[in-house]
Amino acid sequence: MLWADCSDHKAVIWCEDHGDLAYYHDTTPSAHDGVALDAGDLVEFDLSQEKDLRYARNPERIVRQQYAGIAQRLRSACRVPPRITPVREKLGQVVPFRLVDNGNDPKEALRA
């Protein structure tokens, strides 16, 4: 569980399939009422999909604080500076050839 507000019965859950997050918000009695769930808890729940959102139903804590500090670690990971890719070394210099009109036919120069 990434985030939870027990007083408002809301939570955001990172699913084991690493797909979209699951959202929990329920005002009806559930397993959430008896046990205060918190960020870092490993939970089991029923999953449903409605349009583009995933919803968790009937969450039940399996292990308390199994992933303590997960939200903070994810935030910190986002602050890592991007990896700088070294610029390829200049391997050579391109020299442009200019056509010089010396009165000769260029085709004659190729035949020589």
Characterise this structure.
With 112 residues, the chain is an alpha+beta fold. It has a domain at 3-78. The protein has helices at residues 31-34, 70-78, 106-111, and strands at 3-5, 10-13, 22-25, 42-50, 53-63. Strands 1-2-3-5-4 form a 5-stranded mixed sheet, with no helix packed on it. It is elongated. The mean pLDDT is 76.
How many helices? The count is 3
Low-confidence stretches: none
- How does the major sheet shape up? 5 strands, mixed
> What fraction strand?
25-35%
Radius of gyration, in Å, reads 31 Å
Judged by helices, strands and strand pairing, the structural class is: alpha+beta
Average pLDDT figure: 76
Q: How are helices and strands ordered from N to C? A: EEEHEEHH
Helix content: 10-25%
- Spatial separation of the terminal alpha carbons: 80 Å
Shape: elongated
Task: Name the strands of the widest sheet in spatial order.
Answer: 1-2-3-5-4
How many extended strands? 5
